[in-house]
Amino acid sequence: MYRQTRASLTYLLILITTLVTGCWNRREIDTLGLVMASGIDEAEDGGIKLTVHVAKPFAIGGGESDTKGSLEKPFWVVTSTGKTVFEAVRNLASQSPRRLYWAHNRFLIIGEALARKGVTEILDLFARDAEPRLLAFIVVAKGATAWDLLQAEFELEKMPSEGGQGIIPNVEQSLSSIVEAKLTDFLLRLESEGIEPVGIQADIIPLQPDYAVDGDLQRKEVKSRVRFGGTAVFKGGKLVGWLDERETRGANWVLGKVSSGILVVKQPGQEDKLVSLEILRGRGNVKAEIKDSKVSIKIRVEAEANLGEAQGTFDPVQSPQTWAVLETYMKEAIQGEISAALEKIRELNSDILGFGAAVFRKDPKYWREIEGRWYEVFPDLEITVEVNAKLRRTGLIMRSAREK
Q: Which residues does the UniProt record annotate as the domain Spore germination GerAC-like C-terminal (predicted)?
């Protein structure tokens, strides 16, 4: 009996071994070209112009002693065109000796001209296909094309995509002057009730007039760089305008997305001197009120900060009221940033702060009644802003140093 069972198990194992094949769709790393960033513009014939950064692993790994590895540009910039995005992607095959792999694509950059015409259709491939990730940042090149932006580099990183991926969280955590704008966020806002999509604004800082790097085999110097900050404002799938960095932080106060930053205010009692307040955290809340078929919006913001720097002879011990006055100045500075953001989005007539979504949460039935004419109501909304500002600490010293 034991021998029969053992023989049966042996036969079963042999049968399973013959039926199990290898990984039929495996892809060897040395046969792939890793796309790290991509950009889309309108082609001259009205089609799609696609530009991609492809990593060159053999150039990335070189050290200082390896002349080729240290000087050769570690990425390849290549462009193709097509009637659709998918066709433009496939047409890259005629120029690349490796199959391009999109799972590492970290940036989807859109030129301003194309963004103003509309991006909904060009995003379909990136949402539908399994290979690209929905975590790619949506970036709009202000006053430029995506191709222009993809010529830029960063001094501290070999790969431009690494540089961009480092700057964006730095701005989020240190300045709060950038928005959350990954592909998944954009698509969610695009389809949600009462809120519009946003993208990350990018500006090109040219260091030399002729900065095309796509034809250079070796990188000897950085010819242009990128500054991230501000907001690309959409209405539906079309770009309608921009928020600058101050206005963007004002919007982030409302959205509860302020992590840190510096508020510069006047010093109490010495109006010609300035004080720097380091923001510790910010929380925002938006509520809609509906009374007699009229909508009003209430914004409540809570903020905490530390005293980071004082130019004058700051001494809260001798003048206790100084601390309370400084909190008032802090409150006024935050209200100023929020007011600047509200003024701009009223001008652009795009509800990126989700006031319509707040109405929908409050009364879905009423929202259905006004949804079709929301942008007739939106510019004249009654909006009240309440800010609660608290200063926590003075740092390692209580008063400023004084000269003898």
A: 230-395
